[in-house]
Amino acid sequence: MGLDVLRSAIYMELVLYWISSVKKRILYSAVRKYLLMIGYLLIFWLFIRTIKYLFLGNMDFLKSLCWYGFYIPMLFIPLFALYLAVCLGQPEHYRLPKYLYSLVFPAVVLCLLVLTNHIHQCVFRFENGVPSSDGNYYYGWGYKMILAWLSMEVLIFFVLLFIKSHVPGRKKRIWLPMIPLGVGILYVGLYLSGISFLRTYAGDLTVMMILVILAICEGCIKSGLIPSNTGYEELFEATTIGAQILNQNKEVCFASGNAKQISENVLEEAKNGPIDLGEEQLLLAPVRGGAVVWCEDVTDIRCVLKQLEANAEQLESSRSLLQAEVDLKKKQSKLDEQMQFCNKITEYTKDQIDQIKYWLENSKNEQQKWENLKKICVLAAYVKRMSNLILLCEESDFLPAKELEYCLRESVENLKVCKIAVSLSGKCEGVLKKQDLIALYETYEKLMEQILGDVDAVLLHLQSANRQAVLKLNIAGNTTCLSRVRDIAVAGNIQIRKRIQNQECQVQLYAGKEIGKNERNDM
């Protein structure tokens, strides 16, 4: 009996070792779950088998229950194998369709049919109708149903296993689990045929079936039909990366097929950083229990770096050209802007510039030259102040009214050179629209140029407020002067009122204000 217990313990230890290896090798949780359930059922099978044959003695009824209990793992192991095959190739958190759980119902019914065989004897029929675990019996229709059900599940399992496997050469690999299956079928057939030799020397059907089931499952794992977390040594050796795994003593534990021999001095240097080996680079990284050393081909990387450097130089050259182009455009834009100012100034002062040029070229004698220079001073003051106003207008649509006063004061000062009695007074506040300010100053200049040779005295009074301005002029001169005042033309939106009486004339220029016809007194 001691030897039989030891034998059973060895069988159980074998199955437990296989269960432990499954936990390590199979990463896919669904597949691992069903393999472990198969393993636990095998342990249960061995346990009740040991209890039946070694510990129950003459307790026939309990021995019969243990015998019938064999069919619990026999019925559920193929079912779990079928579920395992369905899960292959599915996502990590895949769940079986609900209709597949209905397969549990026939298995439970058949299991109950076996467990209650003492009542109906549909599975095992005993001689004289007396149930006995050690007596002679023959198989009933229930047993045939169980065999048919088990055969169908095993067939479906292998068909699904073949269809869902994506391992190269699966037609050859499928034979690895098929061999123990064939041995098991042959053994069962010979056992059921009643060969005395087989039953005498290899008659432990339970142990034989457990070993066959273990062999089938392990064959599926080894062949790759069931994916496993193994084969690292072969994979590492076949990799194209020249790598080595070292232990703490710097001894090579694993090496790929194209790994290079590396001296200890080089390994010490590699701890501080990558080492250049020409077309390759040696790298070292610590891992638990040692280190991994590998070589990387840096030829392509260096080609890319050279190309990047060339591209960078080309981009720098392009950037310089673009910067030069931008600077040139800025200069051109500045020149264009200056030309616009010049053209605008010329537009407003063209008549004065032409008149200055004429007077300079047509001075017949010294006296006339001095007279023309006096007039030129008046025109030059206008050209200067108008140019300044045009530049200021580029910055804002409104200008301080004081700018108009500054223009008039400079023009008035130059009138004194022509021996004209002139005075300016007034009060300027707020701002004026730039077009109104320019038009008012332009109209004043036209008036002064008309009467420049015939006027004796001019009194000016300027007022500005609320974006409106009024320039009042009292002019004293000869008849020619007064007649020219009548013909004065205004610029822009300037409104004018004139009153001429005897040797005097009153002129009022309005900017930013409308006056009606009844307010005008033109004599």
UniProtKB/TrEMBL annotation:
UniProt feature coiled coil, ranges: 298-332
Keywords assigned by UniProt, alphabetized: Coiled coil, Membrane, Transmembrane, Transmembrane helix
Domain of life: Bacteria
Chain segments annotated as transmembrane: 6-22, 34-55, 67-88, 100-120, 140-163, 175-195
Protein's UniProt name: Histidine kinase N-terminal 7TM region domain-containing protein
Organism: Dorea hominis
